[in-house]
Structure formats: structure tokens, C-alpha cells
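Please go through this protein, sequence plus C-alpha cells, and consider how the sequence yields the C-alpha cells. Keep your notes short.
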Amino acid sequence: MKTNVTEKYNCVIIELKGNVMGGPSTEDFSKLLHSLVDEGKTNVIVDLGKVKFMNSSGLGMLIGGMTTLRKADGDLRICRADNKIESLLVVTKLITVFKHFKTLDEAVKSYD
């Protein structure tokens, strides 16, 4: 899994690429989120548009990230999940936990 971090308006966008399968990537993702919280940046969007595959460990990574940000009075929202990832969220009922958006712009506007 690779990440690309950018900022747009009042939020940080973390674009994930490749396979999201936990492992060492989970620790890197957690460190990234904690450093953002330390900087006072707690409005985060995870862009899943370039994710090819995600397993339960990848879902756990996102849940952990959301918990970290909510404890800091922020939130983690997701966008651009393809049909496979969206069906995974539906089956696990996480679709009701995450605020999810079809486009990045919609996700950014949701923080207004």
C-alpha cells in the first residue's frame, strides 16, 4: 500500500493506492494520523479510488484511524470506494459507520 497526502481547504486527503491489507502499513497509517492530530489536523478523508483490494485487516486499519480522529474531536471519512470495496463495507455493516462519498469534492464539502 502506498499513500499520498495532500491538503485541500479545511481537510487532509490521504490517497491510498494498491492493496490495503494491514501489516506494516497499518503502523505507518497510524503514525501518520497521530502526527496529523499533533498538528491539529483532524478532518481527514481517505480516498479509496486507487485501492485494488482490501481485507479485514485493512478495514481494521480504517476503523482504528476513525477512532483516533474522533477521540481528537475530528473524523475520518472515505470516498471513491469502488463496487468491490463498497460491497465489503455493506457486508460488514461498516457502511453505516463511515461517512462515505462518491467523489472527493463531496467529501471535502461535507466538512463545511
Summary: The two ends are 30 Å apart (CA to CA). The CA atoms of residues 77 and 98 lie 6 Å apart. The chain is about 40% helix and 30% strand.
